[in-house]
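Hypothesis: this fold can be encoded by more than one sequence.
Test: take the structure tokens below, design a sequence, compare later.
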């Protein structure tokens, strides 16, 4: 079974929802950069203070900061004997993807599958308005969708060209989508 995975897709596609369940079922390290950044904000750390305003605007936090978070978690896991992982919401632009590639080469842990969760904007916006997180108002959501199209969507081609990408339709119940993803894991 594939156990070094990443989830790509627009905000609200359900990456976090699916990742949490799959990681628990398969005993994978779940690394959500969004959750990790929100934890830093809640703790009031220097890093969180830097991230807070950027997240509230719906923009991307600096690559160096996000990469440092991911690097420390993946290195710690490798040092404690390894295992599978699921990257949720990271990488989010080409620079992050390139840096991740270098890190994974160092760790000798290549990505086995990139899952693209696809969903129409109208459904995404409804879902996010329903969630009601601090960055879930309509103006910020529309900006996050633009940032996704400009900065994150190029990763679709990037992982396609490496033969790693598989797309799933992210409309339907949480269980149906989970089945579609599980079918890709082998
Ligand atoms: P994230 O925390 O990654 O959040 P997201 O993309 O908005 O949501 P996700 O796709 O995980 O949707 P979810 O399952 O929650 O990013 C937030 C911010 O953090 C970014 O804007 C950025 O500022 C910063 N950030 C994060 N990573 C970064 C990085 N690598 N670099 C720089 N900045 C970074 O689902 C959404 C809603 O839909 C929920 O209410 C859920 O219950 C519902 N839902 C899920 N599945 C459903 C289904 N099948 N049917 C109906 N509803 C469903």
């Amino acid at each position: 079974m594939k156990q070094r995975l990443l989830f790509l897709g627009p905000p609200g596609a359900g990456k976090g929802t699916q990742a949490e369940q799959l990681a628990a079922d398969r005993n994978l390290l779940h690394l959500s950069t969004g959750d990790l950044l929100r934890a830093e904000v809640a703790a009031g750390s220097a890093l969180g203070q830097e991230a807070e305003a950027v997240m509230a605007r719906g923009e991307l936090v600096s690559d160096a900061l996000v990469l440092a978070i991911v690097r420390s978690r993946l290195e710690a896991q490798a040092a404690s004997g390894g295992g599978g992982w699921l990257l949720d919401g990271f990488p989010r632009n080409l620079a992050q993807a390139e840096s991740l590639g270098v890190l994974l080469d160092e760790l000798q842990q290549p990505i086995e599958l990139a899952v693209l969760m696809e969903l129409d904007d109208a459904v995404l916006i409804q879902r996010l308005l329903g969630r009601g997180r601090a960055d879930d108002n309509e103006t910020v959501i529309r900006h996050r969708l633009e940032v996704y199209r400009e900065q994150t969507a190029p990763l679709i081609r990037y992982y396609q060209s490496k033969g790693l990408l598989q797309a799933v339709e992210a409309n339907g119940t949480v269980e149906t989508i989970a089945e579609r993803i599980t079918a890709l894991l082998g």
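The chain has nine helices and five strands. The mean pLDDT is 96.
Hypothesis status: open.
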